[in-house]
Amino acid sequence: MLLCFPQMETSLDLTNMTRVHQFVLLGFPTRLGIRDTLFVIFLGLYLLTLVENALIIYLICSHSELHKPMYFFLGNLSCLEICYVSTTMPTLLVGLWTGPYHISFVTCMTQLLFFVSLICTECTLLASMAYDRYVAICRPLHYPLLMRPQVCLGLALSSWLGGLVVSAIKTKCIASLTYCGPNVLNQFFCDVSPLLNLSCTHVALTELVDFISAIVIFCGTLLVSLASLLSHREWLYSVMPSAAARRKAFSTCASHLVVVGIFYSAALFIYCRPSRIKSMDLNKVLSVIYMVVTPLCNPIIYCLRNKEVHTVLKKTLHWP
């Protein structure tokens, strides 16, 4: 989905070949007192996100009642969320603690590699989960065959490996550009758009390819999720005349619809438009939504309000 061009045929470690050896992450340039408050808030959200998702992984792995395709994907999603927030939140917290700070070129590219990989993986995981719900509702008799363990494992592995491959190619292309100053990134982590804005080489073609790849990844997986949800609706109306029965059946997809809506609405606005459109302050606010709010809310939306998860959680904590 992404191409490299002749001037980009070098390795990822190009520190010695660029005029800029480090970047300055601007973060949230507010007053010291406000930064201290934000630091405490985001640190609490970060720790809560880690605890929530680690709890979901533990419950799924330790209870045979949850050894089902849906929870297999939820376990992968929780693992991804832990990696996701651990890739970007540390630089956000350091920026709030110290103010604008320097990050080396290689460290910046490494963070970009993991960030792009994880966001691509999340898109494909959400599409896989939508397919799982489609089969569970519309093809219940074929569910054990269509969602057998080999299929689930293949979908999960393709999500992780596909995201890593796309990210490696994309990061190599961005790292191969020439950066000759200024070196200030108006963001709290190394993101694609602010990096392209700092390049002093001709990046129009690179931006176009980046824009097209974002459209393919985000819109392609979003269409899969929406098609699955529309199929649920049409099937429910055809076989369930009762409105109450339809609502009960569709409630199994409501959680997925909420997560998809929050994640894609923020991500599409940032990445599925030309990178040179400068609204970086708004981008930082929207980045907080899908990088902090979504990983925090996913365990609550998907699992902690689920009856099966409630049962095993009570059993684990020895609640009556």
Q: Could you give the order of strands across the largest sheet?
A: 2-1-3
What is the CATH superfamily classification?
Answer: Rhodopsin 7-helix transmembrane proteins
Structural class: mainly alpha
CATH class: Mainly Alpha
* Count, helices: 10
Which CATH architecture? Answer: Up-down Bundle
Alpha-carbon Rg, integer:
21 Å
Binned, the helix content reads over 70%
List the helices and strands and how they pair.
Layout: E1 22-25, H1 32-62, H2 69-98, E2 101-104, H3 105-138, H4 143-146, H5 149-175, E3 184-185, H6 192-198, H7 204-239, H8 243-271, H9 280-304, H10 307-317
Helix pairs in contact: 1-2, 1-9, 2-3, 2-9, 3-5, 3-7, 3-8, 7-8, 8-9
